[in-house]
Specification:
With 175 residues, the chain is of the alpha/beta class. 37% of the residues lie in helices and 19% in strands. The protein has six helices and nine strands. It has helices at residues 27-39, 61-71, 87-96, 114-126, 139-150, 169-174; strands at 7-8, 13-16, 22-25, 43-45, 56-57, 78-80, 106-108, 131-136, 155-160. The strands form four sheets. Strands 3-2-4 form a three-stranded antiparallel β-sheet. Strands 1-5 form a two-stranded antiparallel ribbon. A hairpin with a 5-residue loop joins strand 2 and strand 3. The chain starts with 6 loop residues before the first strand and ends with a helix.
């Protein structure tokens, strides 16, 4: 995953409520509420997600760098709910920070469902991949991919990426 796994950014998802009210959500807010809000009739605009606005490395970026050092970047992939148009911006961000995942290995699903990520993994298994390390900040994505990988005879580790609790504790306490 990209957002809140490899990187944090100030990119926002814009929404329109059924009554016409407009607003924005950050990646974390969207990941935890999109299904409920979609069911309520919210319409989504991901145009700002074609860029990496104010990007910084996130919890698992250093892990990705270590994996790149051990195995190389050829078989490393970024799977994101962002649209495919975001791939060049993601590629530039990763390159600028030393992670050399090939542009063609960055997949924008333009789909935030856990099933979309799980189906992508199924395709990789079908293409012969048999050793997976999957990380995502959204628990529903982690669980869906873990369930899929358990059905195949492949080596895998699935992890939820979490921003350090202490990083946002002060603002939460102030609120």
């Amino acid at each position: 995953d990209f957002d809140d796994t490899l990187a944090t950014s100030k990119s926002l998802i814009r929404f329109t409520k059924p009554d016409g009210t407009k607003g924005t959500l950050n990646a974390e807010q969207y990941a935890s509420t999109y299904q409920e809000l979609t069911d309520l009739g919210y319409k989504w605009d991901f145009s700002e997600f074609n860029k990496v606005v104010g990007g910084k490395v996130a919890p698992l970026f250093n892990k990705a760098l270590k994996l790149q050092g051990k195995f190389g970047p050829k078989d490393m992939f970024v799977l994101t709910a962002r649209p495919m148009e975001a791939a060049p911006a993601i590629f530039e961000f990763l390159q600028a920070n030393g992670l050399n995942i090939p542009l063609e290995n960055i997949t924008g699903l333009a789909n935030s469902t856990a099933e979309a990520k799980a189906n992508w993994i199924v395709d990789k298994v079908a293409n012969g991949y048999n050793d997976f390390y999957f990380a995502d900040d959204a628990l529903q994505n982690v669980e869906a991919v873990k369930n899929v990988l358990e059905q195949f005879d492949v080596k895998s580790k699935v992890q939820q990426a979490k921003v350090k609790f202490s990083k946002d504790l002060s603002p939460k306490m102030n609120d």
